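Per your request, structure below.
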């Protein structure tokens, strides 16, 4: 009788542990969002220095066009052994004018996330397809030909 109670207790503990292992794992990546600080950035009042002092360094900055700082935050959830899925996603884009003052501060969410699926295991490239033998022997006879940028024969 006592062995039965011990087995029943062990079974309940094992079931509880196995259910706990199936719970979702939550991970936050990128900028830690503080809505009070995000709401303090005001166009026409703040500049690059005040934004950096308030929000810190951006996640990344624009390389072309208007100077824009991006603060990106993602919260993912996943079950063990499964690819993570995005639960929450926020991007704050702070655009600056030529004088360094804030022009706009726009927020976007998970509705702007694009899911990319690779097409096979090859990357498509422009140009013609070459076989192994063309790669191996393709340059024979082209060395020293006019217009290819090299010397025009031996010794020249």
């Amino acid at each position: 009788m006592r062995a039965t109670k011990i087995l029943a207790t062990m079974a309940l503990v094992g079931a509880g542990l196995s259910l706990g292992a199936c719970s979702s794992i939550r991970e936050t990546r990128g900028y830690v969002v503080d809505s009070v600080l995000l709401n303090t950035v005001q166009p026409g009042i703040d500049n690059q220095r005040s934004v950096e002092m308030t929000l810190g360094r951006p996640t990344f900055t624009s390389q072309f066009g208007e100077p824009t700082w991006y603060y990106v935050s993602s919260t993912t959830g996943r079950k063990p052994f499964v690819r993570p899925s995005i639960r929450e996603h926020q991007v704050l884009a702070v655009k600056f004018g030529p004088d360094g003052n804030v022009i706009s501060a726009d927020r976007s969410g998970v509705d702007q996330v694009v899911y990319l699926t690779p097409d096979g295991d090859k990357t498509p490239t422009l140009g013609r397809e070459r076989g192994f033998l063309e790669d191996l022997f393709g340059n024979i006879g082209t060395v020293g030909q006019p217009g290819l940028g090299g010397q025009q024969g031996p010794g020249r």
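The first strand starts at residue 25 and ends at 30.

Regards,
D.
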